[in-house]
Structure formats: structure tokens, C-alpha cells
Amino acid sequence: MTHMPTTLPVSAADVDAAAAVVAPFAVRTPLLSAPVLNERIGTRVFLKPEMLQRTGSFKFRGAFNKLSSIPQDKRAGGVVAFSSGNHAQGVAAAAKILHMQATIVMPKDAPLLKRERTKSYGAEVVLYDRDREDREAIAREIAEKRGATLVKPYDDPLIIAGQGTAGREIAEDMATLGVTPDVVLAPASGGGLIAGVATAVKARFPSAEVIVAEPEAFDDHSLSLRAGKRERHQGSGRTICDALMAAIPGELTFTINSQLLSRGVVASDAEVGAAVAFAFNELKLVVEPGGAVGLAALLAGRIDTKDKTIVVVLSGGNVDADMFARLVA
Amino acid sequence: MTHMPTTLPVSAADVDAAAAVVAPFAVRTPLLSAPVLNERIGTRVFLKPEMLQRTGSFKFRGAFNKLSSIPQDKRAGGVVAFSSGNHAQGVAAAAKILHMQATIVMPKDAPLLKRERTKSYGAEVVLYDRDREDREAIAREIAEKRGATLVKPYDDPLIIAGQGTAGREIAEDMATLGVTPDVVLAPASGGGLIAGVATAVKARFPSAEVIVAEPEAFDDHSLSLRAGKRERHQGSGRTICDALMAAIPGELTFTINSQLLSRGVVASDAEVGAAVAFAFNELKLVVEPGGAVGLAALLAGRIDTKDKTIVVVLSGGNVDADMFARLVA
């Protein structure tokens, strides 16, 4: 869709405002191109490598934007967040910079690396059982008890606008190159990243198709876009994309994504593993499984690439050494 | 030293000319910064990530510049090169673009990945025994028999000028940022990369100290700089830095390096392994051991960093998956 209703919860101006807040602390990640990928896909592909962002994923952008908005008189209570790992690190790192206490509610089966890295930023980590406990309830209880501000992982306009700064940089860099993106591909769990990216990219390039990439069977955004309303995915069990396991799109994110996104594509765990290995062998980038799902869909031929300029967001690189070794072996 | 004699075999103008030749085909690698590295070192550090270059190392730059200079009537004979792996890939990839046949003489113990990647560019690979055979003699024989042009790995002004384009990009990007580099750190085997980088960087920033990083016991550049003449290193056996095993600096490269470099630093294999792991865990970049030796020296505290702006060249990322898994475990 090429129109952009002014009633959306986040505007391009909100992303501009977020960029001013996060720029002094976030890494301005480059827009990369790799001849080997262009040759493999047969068209021009650009990569937005958010594993190079502070904390190893895009999540710092939204977290820092949100935490910066907390009034001084509320900061003493600290912040609390629930996350499988990347939002955890983003919130913890932002809290450290802003001298706030952070408590993070993480699933017991989150990758060890993500738990350890979250603690390394000075956050307190509270573990819960993904199958038996309600992380939101645990986080809310902590928030009430301590007077802490709950920092949602995606369904917050300030979080979405913060993640959108990655899209704003893509749009700026494409404009500098004089190239119009035809397709922008990004992963989604709750949908905050792609909502922000779509907001920023479509403001500058209304003709760009923004496509959401998801793990097979965890395709709630794809289902919801087709249905025109928020739908749960049917995925049970696990995917190697630990960062992309949200069951249903966010309310705010879906309000945006249902207007701005074209459709969804999926990749199997095997295809994601092959993309992680491709990134290691050919791109020399460390991508975590969830961060590679867009690249996986592209490499698997799920995107019509003929004569198109494609941008792929690689959203993070926080992968345990043993999982990484298995995938690249 | 801050003077730059006009008698050096490669000038900044030669690097400018090389940049015009290679720019349409080489990746213009970004200058990266990482808050986690700045915090760890306590100063401002920039990284030049040459693993993002075509073929996974800086070597494509020099090879493409050299091969482009071969007259049309000599191109039918093809090119021949000897290399432990990265120069091999650079020459093979440049030859493919220029529609020339490439034959590469590689040691039998070169990493499998480097052999396979060299073949993937269409080159013929001839293996030799590092301890018993003379690779230069083998390459010269092939050159004579086929009328091929021998492409030396470093001791050629066009190769040095090509590698220098990495330094030229560093200088351009630092100038754009308005930052003056105090120290530029790069690995050396034969010394072509650092000679080219020093030529370009010191032309723009004469006060910058350019420091060569080498594996412990393979420190022929450090020894030679101290002695004021080319000296062999005393290293026997192996280092994990397979790319950095040349026994003595090149003649042309040392003529340049003895004028432009300040000194050398070394890192042990254990320190190099730690740097590869740091790059994986914190920078999310795939660096091969030889490419990480400058970072290793920096992380090991071998550089006086107080109030200094440091640039580290990460020269390549062609590392076998099993070696990488061992180093990051």
C-alpha cells in the first residue's frame, strides 16, 4: 500500500525524534553489500548488519529511546522487562548508560550467552518457565513492588520508533547511493523492528515493498497479514530462532504492519542454519538464527528478485558458540 | 618518522591511481567502531574490516590492481601466483573478472577452506610441500611454460599500491569524521598491506604512528625495523596465523616500511585465539587468526593507548569452521 494514514501509532517524525535521542549512543551501522551475495541472488542486495549494533542486536535502539523518555523522578525505581535475550540486553545496556537499575525476566531456556551478556550490563536476571509461568505477570509484579517502569519488548510507540532508526539509516544510505529499494526484508517476533523500519523506509520510498520474514510454523505475522487481523501461529515446540517465538503480533505493531507491510515469507530451521553458515563462510558476519531468517528466505528463493534491489535486515548476532559451531560445520 | 622521501617505490599518488582501478570491483569496506571495544581499551578504536572485502581479505585489492595492468596481448597466457590462501583467492577472483586463467601454487597444509575457495573462482590449484619444495621455483616454471604473468604476493609496486587503497579509505573516513588517527595497527606477512596502508595514511596524517603486528616468533618485520635491515624471523614450526608465515620482509615493502613504520608488536597464538573469540562474541565479525593479530596485540595491552585514537586493520576472515569453533569455544 502506498498511502500512509496519519492515524498510525508511530510516524516518520517519531522515528526522526528517536534518531536524535539514540544517535549519541547507538552505533550507526553501515549498509553493506557483498559481491558474492549479489552473484548468488542475481540482483543487487544490501545488508543492514544490526549484529554490529551495541549489545549485538537492534534492540538497543528502542530500549534506549524508551528509557530516555522516563522522567527523572521515576528513574529511581528502575526498569523491568521480559525478554528471551536481545531486548534484555538492549534494556540492560540502556539502563546502565542512564544509571538506572534493570531487572530482566528471561525464560530458563534462553541461550546462556544472552543470559550472561544481560548480567554483564549490570542487570538482575529473574528466570521463569516458558511453559508454566506468565512472564508478563512476573514482570508486572516486580514493577509494582519496586516502582519500576515496565519496558515492553515491542508494543510501545517509543520502542517502535527507536527500532525504526535502523530503517531511517537504510533510507538515508539508499538515498545517498541514489538507489531505490524495491524490497526490504526484516524478521519479526512481536513486530516492533519491522513496524519501525517500514515507517521510516516507506516515508522516503513509498513504492518499497516491506516483507516480514518468520520461522516456518512461527508465522503469526504472515497469517495475520493474510487474515487482516491478529492471528496466533500454530507453532508448538521450538525453533532455532529463539529470538522469534512470540505467538501473536503486537496490537500497535500490527496496526502499523497491516497498513505498511506487503506480506510474509517463511524459512525452515534448516534454511536458517544454511543462512547462518553462508553469513559465516561468505559474508564473514556472525548472525544468530533469528537474525538470519530474512537472508534465509532470500537464499531459499522465497522472494521474487528479478531486476529488484533488495535490502535485508540482519537483526542480531547473539548466538552461543556451540550452536554456531553446529550450524557452520 | 614524519618525512616521506619521494624515492619510495610507491607514492600516495600510486595509491590514488590504484583506487580508481579497483573501486568499481572492490568493496569499499566501512570504518567500524564498537562501544564494547572502546570501553575495553579505554580509548577510541576504529576497525577496518577487510574480511568484508571481496574474497574475504584485503588481497583482492592488490591482485586486481596488478592484473588490470597486464597488457591485453599478455592476458591469454594467464597468471600464476604462490600463496598460502588469501592472495590465491584475490588473484583467482581478479582473474575471473578480467577473463584470465589463473594457476595458484599453494602449500599442502593451507586451510582446506582457502583451497576450496580458490578453486571456486575457477583457478587451477597446484599443491607443494612447504618444507621440501620451493614455491617460487614451481611458479616460475609454470609461468615460463605457459607464458603466464607471475603475480607476486607483495613485492610489487602495483600490489602494494592496491593494498594501500584500504589505507586510503581509512584516511578518507577519518578525515570525514574529523578525527586524526594516532596509531594505525596492521598485520604483516610480506608487508604489502602495511606498506600500502602506511603510504596512504601518512600522506594524509603524517603524525600517525603505523605499527606492524606479527605472531610471536614470526616477527621478522619487528626484528628488521629494529636492525634497520631485512632480518629473518627465528620461528620454526607453525602458528595458527597461517596467513602470516613469510620468513623475511619483502625488499620493496621493507624499503617503504623502514621509512614509514614506527615499530612492531607481537601476539602469541593464545592471544590471537582470544582476539578471534572476542571478535565473534563482541564484534560479531569473523576474523581469521592472521587477520586478528593487530587486535590481539591491542587487547593484550601491547600498545600505549592513553588518549590515543587507534585504527586496527582486521585483514581477513578466511578461517575453517572447525578451527573457528575451537577458537571461540
Written overview of the protein:
The structure is a homodimer of 329-residue chains. The first copy, chain A, has a five-stranded parallel β-sheet, sandwiched between helices. Chain A is globular, with a radius of gyration of 18 Å. Chain A contains 13 helices and nine strands. Chain A has 329 residues and is an alpha/beta fold. The model of chain A has no long low-confidence stretch (mean pLDDT 95). The first copy, chain A, has helices at 12-22, 35-41, 59-68, 86-97, 112-120, 135-146, 157-177, 192-204, 220-227, 251-260, 269-283, 293-299, 321-328; strands at residues 44-49, 79-82, 102-107, 124-128, 149-150, 183-187, 209-215, 261-267, 309-314. The interface between A and B is medium-sized, with 30 and 30 residues.
Number of helices of chain A: 13
- Described by its quaternary structure, the protein is homodimer
Helicity of chain A, in percent?
40-55%
Radius of gyration of chain A: 18 Å
Query: Which structural class do you get from the secondary structure elements of chain A?
Result: alpha/beta
Largest contact between protein chains? A-B, 30 and 30 residues
Walk across the major sheet of chain A and give the strand order: 1-9-6-7-8
In sequence order, what are the helices and strands of chain A, one letter per element? HHEHEHEHEHEHEHEHHEHHEH
Overall mean pLDDT of chain A stands at 95
* Beta-strand residue percentage of chain A: 5-15%
How far is the first residue's CA from the last residue's CA of chain A?
A: 42 Å
Count every beta strand of chain A, where a strand is a DSSP E run of 2 or more residues.
9
The largest sheet of chain A is: 5 strands, parallel
Gross geometry of chain A: globular
Low-confidence stretches of chain A: none
